[in-house]
Amino acid sequence: MARTKHHSAGPALRVDAAATLVAAARAVATKRGLITDPFAEPLVRATRIGFFTRLIDGELDIFDLGDDAALARMIELFAVRSRFFDDFVATAVGHGIRQVVILASGLDARPYRLWWPPGTAVYELDQPSVIEFKTGVLRQLGATPTVNRRAVGVNLNQDWPAALRRVGFDGGEPGVWIAEGLLSGVLSPEAQDRLLDNVTALSAAGSRLAADHMPTGIQSWAEREQTLAERWRHHGLEIGLTGLTYAGRHHDVGEYLAARGWETATSNLADLFAATGLPRLRRDDLANIPVSQRYVTATRRSRHRGAAGDAGQSA
């Protein structure tokens, strides 16, 4: 799904469908007892996209959606990814950090479904339409946040750091950053670098970050987009897959952060499957899986004057 530098965002459905697919996978994973996300299913149903409601109702098997068995493992893959980020943020707040930023939060409902220590603030950043939709649906369900939730409707290609500060984020205190599904080609190489530079500039010593990303060289979705689009269209989802990710060489997230004052560690899918206790994929199954294959955790070291990224910049 190669995307050019000057490509526009396109119809809202394209963004919503991508977020809804992940939520639908979490809903099915919840039914299978792999994770616990009680809000995934009602959020998917509220989109009124029949393709996804049929998926969570079991009328459509995810094995029918892809051109190989790898795509059909999405339920387990997204369950592992969700558990990875949930565990990471739980550990971070358990060590006393009291401000959490979820970049491109999509239809996930961590401020509602997780336990948070008193005094914690969770900042959710995403497109205004996504924030408005999710907030409205959860309000209709009578759901109440379990934390001080501060939702920020903003495009991450705009000046999101200023928007974050306006609602109370304090760059002088440590923070936790979650970038789930965001650093896998969704942003252009230049925009990804700017985002990481801004996160660095906003992060006091002791801040923590977790992200998944697709290393350059892994088989891209561009090689299978036509087959996927045809299969999904056959099942009633009219969505163009081209243009959802950017072409070009993206920096390795762990290496980029390490050069900017972060202490980083990287895991792969096999590591995560083993750590979470879910059934581990065979080694052959890990090749060319069309989701992020590396998971980075990072802790911000003490700032040094003049270090790369410390100057900060507008997105």
UniProtKB/TrEMBL annotation:
Superkingdom to which the source organism belongs: Bacteria
SUPFAM superfamilies: S-adenosyl-L-methionine-dependent methyltransferases (SSF53335)
Pfam family, any one: LCM
A GO biological-process term: methylation
GO molecular function terms attached to this record: methyltransferase activity
Matches recorded under InterPro entries: Ppm1/Ppm2/Tcmp, SAM-dependent_MTases_sf, SAM_mthyl_Trfase_ML2640-like
Enzyme class: transferase
UniProt-listed Enzyme Commission number(s): 2.1.1.-
Keywords annotated in UniProt: Methyltransferase, S-adenosyl-L-methionine, Transferase
Similarity annotation: Belongs to the UPF0677 family.
Role this protein plays: Exhibits S-adenosyl-L-methionine-dependent methyltransferase activity.
Protein name (record): S-adenosyl-L-methionine-dependent methyltransferase
Organism field: Mycobacterium botniense
